[in-house]
Amino acid sequence: MINLDIEPVLENNTGNSTSENGKATEAEENLLQENHEQTHQQSEENMNADINGEEIEEKEAEVASKDKEEESSEVKIETSEIKEQPVIEVNNADIYQKNILILSNISFTVKQGELVYVVGKTGSGKSNLLKLLYGEVPVKNGEVNVAGYSMYKIKSKNIQRLRRKLGIVFQDFQLLYDRSVYENLKFVTKVTGWKDRVKRDERIEEVLNMVGLKTKGHKMPHQLSGGEQQRICIARALVNNPEIIFADEPTGNLDPETSFDIFKLFHEISKKGTSVMIATHNYTIINQLPSRVLYINQGKVTE
Known about the structure:
Layout: H1 2-84, E1 86-97, E2 100-111, E3 115-119, H2 126-133, E4 143-146, E5 149-150, H3 156-163, E6 166-169, H4 181-191, H5 197-210, H6 226-238, E7 244-248, H7 256-271, E8 275-280, H8 283-288, E9 292-297, E10 300-302
Parallel strand pairs: 3-8, 3-9, 6-7, 7-8
Antiparallel strand pairs: 1-2, 1-4, 4-5, 9-10
């Protein structure tokens, strides 16, 4: 009797459970279908968004590329304009030595990277012209601009700033004979405000290599030949990466072969963008290594 009473109850429970499970399964299927439709719809939306996003990114990339091209062209224009600007401008200037008129009404320009010879007889005023340009001789009248500085009534502090943008090579070398080649170049960096020792030493090594004397840094000046000493002077002039180098009879005390090598070095320097003005009366080398010439004769400067 007990078993008969229990079995129907179990059967009824099983039937109820199946019915409930069936209803739950239909609900789940409906929910899954709705989720699938929503997921499919969202996937399409995401795909469209990705496509739109890619299109936007492509458009932005095109715009950025055009902007860079425009910026690049603007930089090229600006660089071109800078190169066209002369580093030296002289207009209607007179040069006096004390109160004596040496050169009158002179006008010329020198562009970036240009090498210019200044020729004339001894005592014609070649050295005075260079001195005017690096601030040793005052400008009394006319207009003289050098490396961005007006030389008319220029203040002494600005002359010092100007000379950091210039290199000067003398006929008589003017090296410090009580110290090594390296110490000579180090002295220049010290007085012109170099702080970083590593960069200073790298620059000294670089300029010695430029003039072909990389292994001579430890030598004393008297241990070098005349040509080597003049190369050290050129290295000294190059230390501060100048805009202009002024060389006053740089080969006056040298033999012809060494003189040719020194002039050839100046030409190489000018090709790298530094303007060079050389006062000389060595017509042989001018013919061998031609370039623009300014002639000084009877108090006038002509081309």
